[in-house]
Structure formats: C-alpha cells, structure tokens
Design goal:
Layout lengths: L3 E4 L8 H15 L6 H4 L7 H11 L8 H19 L11 H10 L3 E5 L5 H8 L7 E3 L12 H10 L6 E5 L2 H9 L3 E5 L10 E3 L7 H10 L1
Parallel strand pairs: 1-2, 1-4, 2-3, 4-5, 5-6
Helix pairs in contact: 1-4, 3-4
Bound molecules: 6-O-phosphono-alpha-D-glucopyranose (G6P) and magnesium ion (MG).
C-alpha cells in the first residue's frame, strides 16, 4: 500500500539544479577549475560544503584553502544562487508537478519534502506550494547527507508511515541511493544511466503522473 510520496526539491519540483550548476560553474571558473555536466551529476543532492570540496579536489586544489577561505567561497556561491532564485514564481514548477501534488492530496497520499538545501523553504515559498507538504525535512534537521538514508527516514517518521510504503523521487545519484538505503521505492527523474539504481525512471517530470507512480509501485 502506498502511503506517502517524498520528494527531493532541486531538479525534481523545480529546475534549481540548473541554478546550482550555474553558480558552482562560475565559482569554479574563477578558481581556474573547469567542470562539465557529467561531473555535475556527482554534485546533485550533495551539501554545499561537500560540493565545494569535490570541486576543489577536481581542480587539484584540495589543500590550497583554509576552512575560513572555503567558507567564504561557499558563501559566494550561495549569494549568486540566492540571486538566481529570487525571481522564481509558481511558473517555475516543472511540468506536471502541480497536478501531481493535487492528485496525491485528492487520493489522501501524504506528501513530504527531503531536501539537502538550506534554501529549501525559500524556494517552496516562492513556488507557492507550502500548503501541499505534510512535512518538510531540510539540511538543518539532519546530521547525515545523502546517500545516507536519514533525511528520507526522518520524513517518513514525521509522516508516521512505514518506509516500505513510501515512494521517494530524486534526480540525483546520491538521492536515489539514499531512498534505496531507506528501504523505499525509488523513482529517478532524468538520465537512465546516471540513475540506474532507481526502481523506476522517468525522463522528465511530465511523465511523473499519479497513475504512473501507483502502477510502478504496485508492480514491485
Ligand atoms: C541540494 C542540491 C545540491 C546543493 C544542496 C545544498 O541537494 O541538489 O546541488 O548543493 O542541495 O544546497 P544549499 O542551498 O544549502 O547550498
Ligand atoms: Mg535534486
């Protein structure tokens, strides 16, 4: 029985994954580090500081900066990111997502958010969808980052449902791994190859309908 759907935010509900990419890319270029979309797959779902560490390591600069300097770099990226999200409106919901949230509500399926982003509340507010979520678990509420299952397990606990009755939706490798580690049914949105650990994959959110989710979940 399906009791809840727990969503990742960036790249699933809205295209902020692209904004994270743009902001990191600009910072990396200022440091003389080039990275492409393939490398970016490894940053999706990963916390701000860990993302910076991975970028510095990519550029062979892992030991170049002090902790304070790294914090300043991460802050700079975040200021750029905040500029990018400041203009978001409900029109920035990805295709089909509003219909999906409505359908889930209509069918009494609980809705959770599991986002590693400290900007999650701002984004949800800007999109005007706060009312749909029965719980929101963000970076401030968990100790361990994805692929650790903690963020998804915390959401299930707060929704008072068993993990095995939950579907998790993710666009990140680390996120899909977290869902599987939480013993939930994992739906990946995006590249088949990158998300091959998922139980069910859709190319875009337009294919992520209520019926598709229910069918996939019950086929297992
Ligand atoms: C999400 C995104 C990551 C981002 C992380 C932290 O998991 O997929 O790309 O680095 O959140 O976001 P924040 O807004 O706190 O820097
Ligand atoms: Mg994501």
């Amino acid at each position: 029985q399906l009791n809840a759907v727990i969503f990742d935010l960036d790249g699933v509900i809205t295209d902020t994954a692209e904004y994270h990419f743009i902001a990191w890319k600009q910072l990396a270029e200022q440091l003389g580090i080039t990275f492409d979309r393939a490398f970016n797959e490894q940053l999706k779902g990963v916390s701000r500081m860990e993302s910076l560490e991975r970028i510095l390591a990519l550029g062979g600069q892992a030991d170049r900066y002090t902790t304070a300097e790294k914090e300043a770099l991460a802050h700079k990226k975040n200021e750029h990111y905040k500029q990018l999200i400041a203009r978001m409106t409900p029109n920035d919901l990805l295709p089909g997502m509003l219909d999906l949230l409505r359908e889930l509500k209509r069918n009494h399926i609980k809705i959770g958010l599991a986002s590693a982003s400290k900007n999650a509340f701002t984004v949800i507010e800007r999109l005007g969808i706060r009312e749909y979520f029965d719980t929101i678990v963000d970076a401030a509420k968990v100790q361990n980052s994805k692929p650790h299952p903690e963020i998804f397990l915390t959401a299930a606990e707060q929704l008072r449902v068993a993990p095995s009755t939950c579907v998790g939706v993710e666009d990140a490798q680390a996120g899909v791994a977290a869902i599987k580690a939480a013993n939930m049914f994992a739906i990946g949105v995006g590249d088949k190859e990158a998300l091959k650990e998922a139980d069910y994959i859709v190319k875009t959110t337009a294919d992520l309908t209520y019926d598709a989710i229910v069918h996939a979940f019950h086929r297992e």
